[in-house]
Each structure stands twice: as C-alpha cells, then as structure tokens.
Amino acid sequence: MSAFPGELFQSYFRDEIMSNRWIESPDTVTLEPLVENPYDYGIFYGRQSLRNVLQFVRDHPVDVADARESALRKIHRCIARASNAYSHPIRLEYRIARQLQTVHRELTWAELDRRLKVRSRLWNKKRYTLLARELCVLATMHEYWWQRWPDASRPANSPASEKIRTLSRSMAASWRSVRDYLELLGISWKIDVASRLTGGGRIVEELRGQSKKAVYRDHGGVAWLIKYDEESILNPVLASIFARLTGCPGGDLCPVFLDYDQTSSQACSVQPYLKAERIRRFPWCSRQDYSALIGGSRLRASQALCQAVQEWLLGNSDGYQAIVDSHGNIILIDQDRSFFHGQPRRTDRSSRVRVTTSNTANGVDEQDDASAIRRQLIQATMAIPGVAEDLAEYISRVEAMPDAIYEGLARNASYCANQLCSLFYVDISDSSATESLTVMERWIERLMARKRSLRKSIAQRLREVLRTTTSRL
C-alpha cells in the first residue's frame, strides 16, 4: 500500500474511528470478556482483583463513563502520528503495551491489598477508579484491534508474554506455599497495627530519608514505625519472614509487618520502634572498632556475624545499616533491597523513559563466594568463644528451611526500586523484555545456589580470613 498524504491519512482514520463504524455500542465498555479471559489481554495475574473491579464498575458506572472516549483519543493519536498505513498496527501495538504496563502497576497494588485482606472495594476509591478506567481503555484498544485486523496475531501474544504468564503462575504458587508453611508453624506474616494507632504521629528526624517515616503509639503505649514508601513495603517483610524461620540472632528483634492504614487508605510497612543508636560507618569499621562495639559479648558478636551472613545470602545490596538498641543488641536494619538483583536503568527511547533491569547492582551478583562478608567483622567476631558454634547452628537452621519456601520468598520480592513486582513492569513490546525476564530467573537460581552451598561458602570464607581449619562448621 502506498503512503497516504499526511492530512488525507489522518482524516481517513479519524473519520473511521470517530464514526464508530467498528463498534456497536459507543457509550459503554464491557469488561466481562477481559475478566473472563485476561490472558488474551496480556494480564497473567490477579483474576480475583479483576472480578472486584468488574463489580466496582457495575456499582459505579459514572466513574468510568468516559473511558471509551479516552481510549478513542489515544487510538487517534497513534494513527495521527503514523506516516503510512503499514505503521498503524505497529504503533497501536506499542501503545497497547504501554497501556498494559499501566494496568499491571495498578493491578499489582490491588493484589497487594488482597494479601492484606482489605476486602472492601472502596478501600481507595480513587485508585480503584483509576484501575477500572485503565482496564476499560485497554479493553477498548483490543476491541478495535480485533475488529480492524481480525486475522492478525493479538498484541498480547509474544514470547515475553508467555514467559510472564509462566513466571506469574510460579510466583502465585510460591506465595501460597509460603503462606501455608507459616500457618502450619503458627507464624503470622502480617499484623493489624495501623488501625490501633493513636493520633499525633511524629516524624523521626534522624530517620528522615526518601520515604515518609513516622512513629505512632498504640493504645498499649508501644511505639511503631510506619513507612509508606513503595520500595519499603514488601521486601523487608520477606526478609523478616526469613529471619524468623531461620532464627537469625537479632533478626527477630526488629521484624517488619505488612499492614493497611485505613486513615490514609494505603498499604504500609510497620515495625516496632526500638530506642536505639545508629552505628555510624558500621560497614567500614576496623577490626578494633568492631571489637570495641561488641565488647567481648558472644551474643552481640553472633548477632553481627549471622545477620551479615543473612544480608549476603538474601542479596541485600543496601549494605550494613545497623543500630544498637537500649539492651545492647546489634540489629541490622533496612532490608528494602533484600533479594534485590539490579538497579533500574533508565534509557530514552522515542521521547519516553523506559525502566529495565540490570544484573550488576553494587557488585552483589559477583560475590557468590561470600567475599561480601567483611574480613574485619569475621576477625573480630570469630575471636570470641562460642561464636563459631552459634554460626554453625544458624547455618543448620538455614539448611533445614525448605528450598520451596526460600524460593517463594525470592519470587515474590520486588526486584527494582519503587516496584512491587517487576514481572508486571516489563515492557513486552521491547526487544530486551525476554532477556530481562531471563535475568530474573538467573538471579533466583543464584540465590537458591547460595542457600544450598551456604556451609561450604562460609567455611571457605572463614579459611580465607582466618587461614585455619573450620571444623566447627
């Protein structure tokens, strides 16, 4: 087909779209097909949340009344920028992929609230309305595509889409395994704190950072630290679950729970607020500094060493940020980047910003030999009688943890900053999408390998540092 002159081409497709010749009902959007067959639209997770959205649309049709018009405008902008008819489906496919990313972002938050057992569809009307509208736009775009090119391959059918579909099933199944295992052991992975907090929360100046942090007290007078930062919601909870299951010395003193703040209508992470002093430059202490800090205490030495081992094992790329509480315990904090495999890399393409994953964050991936555990810390702690035995017991508990549970924690972690699950942020229209997914799989395999070879890796690291046999491991 020869290229249309610019104005004639735009006029042709503007008339075709706005005259609604391709659609029978111009004023309404039907989400039933999308909810019943989400895979056809590129949605591979969150069917129950989709059903909740469908009911929301039925109860509040006025909130999505102009969603179809919004979709028509987006389609028209795609067409108006095309230079010829051949590029029309290519541009629209790209636009559908962008729309799918928006849907995934909002749908992932809805799924998180399902984990929090926020049952009301009005948990946050603004966010629910946005998700409903974005789904309506996506459905309209697909409807146009199918009627305009009935014999063409659907935009959602791509190798990356199929890979995401497989991985999302694994992620959901893994989370069920973790949840069932915790229930079997009688361990709660969430706690209802936010609804019991009194007013007058105060911002903690010494903890002020990129995320909003405030301290509240419950009716019993216990202080709790609340974080609303997206990156600080899920991964610290998963790291806390791991510490609880493995009995990491000191790891149970500052657990992080997943909660829902009804006052602010948003998810948050909650943890006990301990009166503590931050250990400045803890990652860079000399052997003498560590020895002075530990003061000959077997407990503090075991806490410092075992938690350092855990940070390496979980791929925490945030370094050792530690505190000493009022009882003298050493506690490593800020597990935001546990299971974290890469920094987001932003690149401009077609006047947009794209987030992809990188597999080279702070050298974490290259340290499978446990060299990330500092020589000075090992020297200072292993010199204290009993610490080697404590470390050996901790390693035994890690080894006793079922691989499926450890994998479940890793699969449900956030892999990029400000994301809940990077599976649903992958741009399936990008040529590197499949490689990004492969990187995630390789990272999970690497974490699993670390766990399985933990005793060997730590023994080797101790031999390097101490240059002695490590028979006690």
Distance between the termini: 73 Å
Strand order, sheet with most strands: 1-2-3-5-4
Query: What about the largest sheet?
Result: 5 strands, antiparallel
Q: Number of DSSP strands?
A: 10
Could you list the spans in which at least 5 consecutive residues all have pLDDT below 50?
1-26, 344-365
CA gyration radius, whole angstroms: 26 Å
Helix content: 40-55%
User: What count of structural domains?
Assistant: 2
Structural class: alpha+beta
**Overall mean confidence score, pLDDT:** 81
Number of helices: 15
Quaternary structure: single chain
Question: Which percent range describes the beta-strand content?
Answer: 5-15%
Outline, from the CA principal axes? elongated
How would you spell out the order of helices and strands?
HHHHHHHEEEHEEEHHEEEEHHHHH
Descriptors:
473 residues, alpha+beta, five-stranded antiparallel β-sheet, three-stranded antiparallel β-sheet, 15 helices, 48% helix, elongated, disordered N terminus
